[in-house]
Amino acid sequence: MSVAGLLLVFVAAIVVAGFAKRLGFQVPLVLVTVGAAASFVPGVPTPAIPPDILLGVVLPPLLYSAALDYSFNTFQRNIRSILRLGIGMVIVTAVAVGVFANWLVPELTLGAALVLGAVVAPPDAVAAVSVGRRLGLPERMMAILKGESLVNDAAALTLFTLAAAAVTGERISIDSPILYFGYEIVGGVGVGLVLARIVRTVRARITDSALETVLGLILPFVAYFAAEEIHASGVLAVVTAGFVLGRNAGDESVSTRIQERSVWPTIDLVLETFVFAYIGLQFKSVIDTVRDDGLPVHHVFGYGFAVLALVIVIRPAWIFLNVGRRRAMPRLAARRGTSRAEEELTWRQNLVISWAGMRGVVTLAAAAGVPLATVSGDPFPGRGVIQAVAFTVAVGTLLIQGSTLPMLIRVLDVADPDEELRNSQQIDLARQISKQAAERVLADMLRDPPAALRDPEVGELVERVRRSTQARLAAEHADDLGEHEAKVLRLGAQFNRLRNDVLKAQRTALIEARDAGDLDDEVLRRLLDELDLEEAAAEARVRRQRW
Description:
- By secondary structure, this protein is mainly alpha-helical.
- It folds into two domains: 310 residues, Na+/H+ antiporter like fold (Up-down Bundle), CATH 1.20.1530; 127 residues, no CATH class.
- Helix content is 80%, strand content 0%.
- About 3% of the residues have low confidence.
């Protein structure tokens, strides 16, 4: 597909998304539906992007952005729920679909059917998170859905590689599936840690916020392709790098943090919009592929609907079987230290999570990446069927589960009545920590003032900084001095220095509280945002005074 064609798809998708939002419709569903209808219009280009490019260009920034904005403390608290869904359910889905498809579809060998299972196994949380955010899902449920999306792609793509290699007869770097899976995890995490450390080191030595932002933009792509180059998990490399940079965001400059807060949501919007339009535009191409293979279209899509039904059923079955198992073995659960998130999820909340299983771009890209032939030169068994069934599952889950999820959330009323109180308590604690850190710096200033200041000026300076900090209006009182211009010029440098010391102490205290487990990352980011805006506003005022 030409560059002009891709740009046309981007522009059209953004326009459709804008209208859908304005009319109150779910953007993913509208984009898929409009794209599917448009694929039959003569002259409308069908995007044909190589699967490795699609995964390598679209997936890394989306995963990195999600990891940047995700609390590592929250990930740790919900680790069992996340791994049960992100790894356990992916494996169960792949095996169940593989066995079922091998029995149902004559064209599929067991190996090819397992490839299909790996293709349709990973849910895409984009649509679910979008709905949940709009309808106010409890933060714990959102955390589990987001956390699942950070690991399930890695599990599914690893299974896909193993199953495809078994069918084609290709050798992989490690013969043992368990060792290969372990290498993917360790290698991916290792690459992410190393590259994140390099980026942090480089950022600490440069003062140009534009360059710092560019480093952050290229990091997910470098992490993904570097890990894939050594046959490790590119997905885990990207997620790990995002976790590290997000957790250490306080080390970056204020201007860099402010820029990145605008850049990543924009990138997410553009890529997510394109992805759902891309899925819909594949509809006619999938039908043509089935016909070219000489297969009855209605039979193939019948297989697709059967697999779709199985995929939809597996998720709630897996979730509620695990809930029942934990309740049947309370002593074992207690010995294993069941997390707070698992204990507090109600059956209504579990039902909503079990229905949030929409598939997305990874399913389509993996289906497109099924090899054309085996090592011996024979065609890959049932390749066209795999692609058609994968498309049916992706679109079917988006339309069926995506369209009914909002209604389910409203009917079940899964809101957490205590969440607002917990959030308020966390914010109050964070503000108290920030205030105490500021007061310590101001007290140090009063005890040991600079020699250039007279005693009355020290008290005035401290009071101005205190008022500025409490009001969260950076240097507001430094501007409103009227007849004291001479004093402003003399005290301005000291004011700015003291204010920056206070802000630095507040950031340090908040980060230490987060590291000690007293604050969640979400609360930390909210308070850091306030401090960043205060410092940026103050610096802008100082620049205007100099002009």
